[in-house]
Amino acid sequence: MPIHLTNADRRHFLKSIGAGIVFHSSHAFADEATGIDQDLVVMLNDTHIGEKHPSDSPVPTHLRLAVRDLTQRQAKPACVLINGDLALKDGQPGDYQHFSQLIQPLRDAKIETHLTLGNHDNRDVFYQVLNEERGSDPPIQSLHVSVVETQNANFFLLDSLKETMVTQGNIGREQLNWLARMLDMHSKKPAIIVTHHNPRLGGDPVHFPGGLIDSQELWNVLTKRPHVKAYLHGHIHDRGFAQHQGIHIINTLATSYVADPQKSTTGWTSIQLSNSGALLTSHTTDPKHAWNGKATRLQWRTL
Question: In terms of CATH, what superfamily is 3-299?
């Protein structure tokens, strides 16, 4: 469920199609004066911030360090996407208050920030804490879906939250119909899908039970549209790259913690876009980790 924390002086409303649908242009203010790299998008996910986390404990520290790094870089990203499971377990009010405090430096630095919710989040509680972020007239009453535009790609932020504390995710027919319409209306640039949950197809783990229960239905929508190039997700707390029917499936680093530190690590991912692909670089919490600075170049499938 994307929640937009875009600063008012950087937000550019392109057009509204249907009730409450707003398209944000991340490159509208990208020039030398701003210090913003219009082709750079940053992905964080699985922050799992709790109300009672001590300030120096690992989980909030990981997010704090990532935010500090992003705000101190000479070239700031066009936007930051934080892709679900913002809260520790079941979306308590204090979790979101703490989370909001930790990402405040992004707002202060005027870095456009977009959030989605995962299975450890609670929509109602989130809106109680950040009620100004709730759209007054959403295009889908129970969901909030949107398109974020950048110079070389459009990001389609989907809502896969089926129910708080239910591991599986779901897109649903109404959202699939909306996505199909929006993809058809934005076919001139590469399309990148951003969803908290992993699809249950392509790559490892192919059959991860916590993924989207309607993965095939979603893929039927995506594969019919050649401008769809990639699917970004979190949820698994790992890092990996796969393809299914020509669409890249990118499992991005969790910012909070991992199940097995011997196999994975925490951090965030930068995405440097071009008109033909993207360069994804891992930035790990541990600067000495083998994945830190490791770059993977993806070539988009042709039309």
Answer: Metallo-dependent phosphatases (3.60.21.10)
